[in-house]
Each structure stands twice: as C-alpha cells, then as structure tokens.
Amino acid sequence: MVRLTRIYTRGGDAGKTSLGDGKRVSKTHVRIVAYGAVDELNSTLGVVRRQPKLTRRDDRLLGRIQNDLFDVGADLCVPQKRTEKKGQRLRVQAQQVVALEVAIDERNDKLQPLDSFVLPGGSDLAAWLHVARTVCRRAEMDVVRLLETPRMGMPPKEALRYLNRLSDLLFVMARVANRNGRTDVKWQPGQSQE
Fold it and tell me: Which domains, from first to last, does the chain contain?
C-alpha cells in the first residue's frame, strides 16, 4: 500500500525527479513524459466520469480503467531489467488487455456500421470520450518513443497494448454515446472545397 505523508518535497525544484527505482532524471526524460501522459489521460477520464449521461455500467468500467492506469504508470516508472522475476514489480498483465477487448466487443456489436470516418463530437459525453481517446493516443505515442529509446530497460509491452486497446474502447464508447452511432458526426471528404 502506498502512504504519502508529504505532498511537497522540494526534490523537483531543480528540474529533476525520481523514477520508481530511485534513479534521478530530468522531468523531460522520455520515461517521465510517458507516464505523465498516462496521468493526464487518467485525469481526463475523471472528467468523462462526471458527465450526466454516462451509464452506471460505463462509470464502473472507467473507474476500473482509472485504477489500471495507475498500474500502467507504475509499470512505466520502473525500468524493467532482464533479471526481474515475475511478480517482483507491478506490471500490466495480459488479462487487463483482454478485459478491454471484452468491453469493446460487448459494445461494438450494437453499433451502426461505419461508412465514413467519425468526427469528434455529437453528444457532450461522446465529445469528452473523443478527447480522452486522443489523449490516450498521445500517451501511447509517448510509450512508443520510450520503447524506441536505447538503454531504457525491457519494453513495457503490455502497457503499450493496454493503451492501444483503451483508445479503441474510448472510440467505441463515444459511438455508443451517440445513440449507438446513429448521431455520429461523419467526415464528408472535400465538403468545403470549390
């Protein structure tokens, strides 16, 4: 269990912070940027959960996802060593990704088929879900950047898969919020061209 007794430590006043293993790095370090984006995503989901049209079922799902996103952050904040034993550190697990896939499949079955790309918008809830989806995509890109950076430890593959599935789920949830896709705002290619 985590116990926080002091909110400010002054340890970051010079632009450095600590990773989960105690190593001090710049606040612009690729690993810090990655789990900072995950934190931003979590905050965005907090706003989504305050939307009045969100169902209890989806609120419970998003609550579980917010908790999972702390697992993603914990995974990202400690570089994984090849010698790390299973269960030694908190890492995102494959079953967390599978749970997102199940949620996607349950919701996607009821949707109108897509015949165009969907513009972010429609209902207030759908618009916020699209905002969360794009924040999730950016977090995913930041994790990919971490994976592509040499000497960053073993890649957090399940964390990356989790974010990839989560952005898909948020897209599907936005369509559900738009009356199962019936009130989606669709892209009309070249609409404003002469």
Answer: 22-82+89-182 (1.20.1200.10)
